[in-house]
Every structure is written in C-alpha cells, then in structure tokens.
Amino acid sequence: MRVPPAAFILNGLGWVVILALVAAALALVRLLGFPGLLILGLLCCLICTRAELSEDVPSWGRQVFAARMARAGEAPDRAAFRFYRRCGCVLLLAGLAGTAWQWWGML
Fold first, then answer.
1. Same domain, 73 and 61
2. 54 and 5 co-located in one domain
3. Average pLDDT over residues 79-103
4. In terms of DSSP H, where are the helices of the chain?
C-alpha cells in the first residue's frame, strides 16, 4: 500500500479547516442574519488589510509606506490578501444591503 505524500495530507487538512470556517460562518449568519454577514465581511477586510500592512513593518507610520514602496514589485505574494479583502468587501456590501432591506421592510 502506497503512503500519500505529505503535501497531499496537508492539502486535505487545509480543506478541512476551510470547510470548518465556512460552517462556522454559516452558523453565525444563521444566528444573526444579515448583520452577521456584515460582521464577517468587516472582520475579513480588517484582518487582510492589517496582515498586508504589517508584513514587513510591525508599526504604523512612515515605515509602512517605505516598506510598501520597496516591495512594490512583489505583487504575487500580496495577491491572496487582495483577493480575500475583496471577498470581505463583497460580504460587507451584501450584509449592508440585506440589513437595509430588512429594516426597509419593517417600516
């Protein structure tokens, strides 16, 4: 019997964690409704923005912008942050629209 490579096992474990996070997000949205979606989107945007800004420099200030300009040519490693931040923005907008729609229906 052939043993699967470590990358295959780690990939499967990664998917299990992602599916667990999706299940937790769906439970939160089921519990809170559209405001839950808004909270998830806001958290996703904030976490991705914070992670992208503090990759090289642990403080806020001019050093952040100097480090960002120095690594401006390294776009592929930041593309994942950008993708997830945009997903968070979509969740945020959907949560805002859904919450406004629910409040409009109560008037």
1. yes
2. no
3. 84
4. 6-32, 34-53, 62-70, 75-106
